[in-house]
Request: fold
Amino acid sequence: MLETKEIHFYYGAFHALKNISMTMDDHTVTAFIGPSGCGKSTFLRLFNRMNDLIPDTHLTGQCLIEGQDIYQKTVDVTTLRKKVGMVFQKPNPFPKSIFENVAYGLRVDGIKDKNFIRQRVEESLKGAALWEEVKDQLKKPAFELSGGQQQRLCIARALAIEPSVILMDEPASALDPISTSKIEDLIHSLKEKYTIVIVTHNMQQAARVSNKTGFFMLGELIEFNDTKKIFLSPEKEATQNYITGRFG
Amino acid sequence: MAIMQKKTEQKIAFTFFRSLSLVVVAILFWILGFIIYNGAGVIDWEFLTTAPSDGMTGGGIFPAIAGTLYLILGSSMVAFPLGILSAVYTSEYAGNGYIIRFIRIMTNNLSGIPSIIFGLFGMALFVNTLEFGDSIIAGSFTLGLLTLPLVIRTTEEALRAIPDTFRIGSLALGATQLQTIRRITMPMAFPNIITGLILSIGRVSGETAPILFTVAAYFLPKLPQSIFDQVMALPYHLYVIATSGTDLEATRPIAYGTALVLIIIVLLMNLLASFLRKKFRKL
Reply:
């Protein structure tokens, strides 16, 4: 379970997240929507502490994963990131072979057992619905795959280290419609094993893939509810205006 | 018509620029041609493999070639690890604070210091204070310091050319910063780093002033026995036989030959650099 309590986040003096408290259940898909710059990606990156990499930022409030505050001093960030995988907007495979991309997380974890690695790579590629397309060319450079395949490779790469949470930051916005629908199908099947949080600009996508949807605007969480409720009968006028395309 | 006028203006401008760049190339070829014309005649197997004889008017330049190679090797062993590691620190770890900007400015200033100053500094520190004497090790340290800014700058630039998405992707998988550098960033930057390293070698092989007081021997027909021995070196040998030989007229062809060998070494280094860069790019 992911939980935040009264989160405030600042880029320098800029107040990017304002008092956000929410809970996300295990094995659900939660979507964040909202206009550009509303803070939804910043909020997503809290959960694997990727915001730590940005200088001059400041956080107050609590961010809990399974009850543990991940911003406590005793938390090892690399361990956290092995539990909370992330997929980025643009596919970013490493300049290595398909196999080595998926094996990367295992290798940096110090795993040497070749059979174990081979097995895990296969499972992960199957989990990311890419295995059938690449099983005969695992040694091929990852850059030679199509954009959609690269993104599924990045998902496989995240699955290989067996996270419990997967964060997706607009995972399909750089992809064509067919690749996008493959990613969406994949999100459906991944829900069985993982807790998924996805940021998207595409409202149909949020409606299709998620159980719950949060609407962000100007750093505030305006509304957070079941996806159906958000799209069919939102409580706030701002949500209504956004999903009907009156601004954004 | 106005449109036609624009075209003519452009034509004139480009013709002017083009002829200027041709002048640069022409000068280069003139120098090269002059040296090849005068020097190619003396280069043969004996010239490359024997020591000077008859008061520098005969024989070859083998000890100087060997000495230059020793100095390339020695200064590389000083400058490469030091330069690469400090560049990794400044560009991957240190962020962009005041201290790091100060270090960067100082590194750039270091590259602007005349090489004779390095020579004097090397003599004061390595030859006298540390009591290495005139030796390969003193010369290697001096040349190494001279090329350090070049090594640091090219390594930094190579690292900075790697998009952050790769670093972020690696960190997001639970890799540490060191693992990210070792497994992702460095291998990706390697082609450009190696180019910088080889170009710095080219610089080392041509420098005279830094070795003048630290290692170079006027005449030393036998090869060094240890890193505490002196060696001859091509640029210094060239200086010697062009200015203070026993019979300048008789040594002139040898001087041209020496110059040609030196140019060929630098040229080969540069070719090797671009070859390696292309080769690693393909991987």
User: Anything to note?
Assistant: Chain A has a mean pLDDT of 92. The CA atoms of residues 17 and 219 of chain A lie 4 Å apart. The interface with chain B takes residues 48, 50, 53, 55, 78-82, 85-86, 88, 90, 92-95, 104-105, 107-109, 154, 157-158, 161 of chain A (CB under 8 Å).
